[in-house]
Amino acid sequence: SSSSSSNIPKELQDMPAAQVRDLLVDLLPRMTGQKDEFRQVEDYINALEDKYVPVQTLDFLNLAMGGDWQMLFSTNRLGIPNTKLRLRELVQRIDTKNLDGTVTNMARWDLAEEVPGVFDCSGTFSVKCDYGINQGARMNIDLKDHVLELARGSRVPTDVEGLVGMLSGAMPSEMFDPNELAMDTTYLDEKIRVVRLTGSRLEGVRNVFIRSGAVEVSPTKN
């Protein structure tokens, strides 16, 4: 156990990782922005990182890491609310090829450009990156392209630049502009992935992702 474990509440130290993970996954969609919730999330993340035994081989890491991951949380806090723009989901797609591969951060968005509350433009915004692994499981990110695509039947926005500006405000900055950042996988299982960012801008920021389809995450309960 690492020296940081002294800051982790005893009941979490004694709990199996899967149980801590389930507590985290249960809390994140219900958060209302209270300070004690953020403290709780931090305790859960610290406990998971403390219990994590890194994956031994690159092949296994690639197998465990590849695919689509829905972003649940960033300690960088999610972006600025905007009445014209709705972010429906943020997904990180990882395609692995041995020591390198691609990371695509994709936002599904709806835009009410002309009439308040009428979201008649919609589509996806993809941030395409290459990555290389140089030590352990650290992924060094290199931004390649931003791609905006409209959904079939969507109205074409009149101010595309304005839309991209709103997306940049709404997305956590590490998802919109991950250039020159590195990602360390600090916890990984069949359901969730915790990433610690390194790089001057966002040193120590944590992202929590859930494997797409692993758990039904919906902001509104039916």
UniProtKB/TrEMBL annotation:
Pfam families, alphabetized: PAP_fibrillin
GO cellular component, one term: plastid
Keyword GTP-binding: no
Keywords: Plastid
Subcellular location field: Plastid
Stretches assigned to the Plastid lipid-associated protein/fibrillin conserved domain: 33-196
Keyword presence, Plastid: yes
The name this protein goes by in its record: Plastid lipid-associated protein/fibrillin conserved domain-containing protein
Organism expressing this protein natively: Minutocellus polymorphus
The organism's taxonomic lineage, starting at the top: Eukaryota, Sar, Stramenopiles, Ochrophyta, Bacillariophyta
